Amino acid sequence: MLTSVYWSPDYKRSGGGARRSQHMDFRAVDFKVGGAGRPEAWARTLKR
């Protein structure tokens, strides 16, 4: 599940994190892999 893709300047100011986040340039995503704790499981989920 994607949890974060783009951060607007206003959102960035309210949330902290890196001073110049890659999210502000659409070059980063955050995602959550439910129930998967091993890299092999992450790879399977990403391929789907």
Automatic annotation (TrEMBL):
Residues 1-44 form the Peptidase M15A C-terminal domain. Keywords: Carboxypeptidase, Hydrolase, Protease. One of its GO terms (molecular function) is carboxypeptidase activity. It comes from the Bacteria. InterPro entries: Peptidase_M15A_C, Zn_M74/Hedgehog-like. The keyword Hydrolase applies. The keyword Metal-binding does not apply. Signal peptide: none annotated. This is D-Ala-D-Ala carboxypeptidase family metallohydrolase. It comes from Jiella pelagia.
